[in-house]
Amino acid sequence: MKDKDIVCVCNSITYGQIIEAIEKKGLKTVEEVGDATQAGTTCGACQDTIQEILDSYYKKK
Ligand code: FES
Questions:
Q1: Does 9 sit in the ligand 1 pocket, CB within 6 Å?
Q2: Average pLDDT for residues 12-34, to the nearest whole number?
């Protein structure tokens, strides 16, 4: 996934915005990402993708 790719269509939140919020705020859950960026807070369809982003982010560390 690239930084400019939209993860959350409802709220136009990109992969880059989600990664930045995870890095800056130490977010660990889909709910925390939603609170910080609004991603996943409307239809919920992107929540699985957000979980995958979190999983791969913390696996790399
Ligand atoms: S696509 Fe993210 S809440 Fe709908």
A1: yes
A2: 98
- Find tokens 């995958």 and name the residue: 52
pLDDT band at 61 (very low <50, low <70, confident <90, very high): low
Per-residue DSSP letter, 48: H
**How many Å lie between the centroid of ligand 1 and the Cα of residue 25?**
21
Q: Is residue 46 part of a domain?
A: yes
pLDDT of 9 reads 98
Q: Which domain holds residue 49?
A: 6-60
- Whether 1 maps to a domain, the answer reads no
Tell me the three state secondary structure of residue 6.
strand
DSSP 3-state of 37: helix
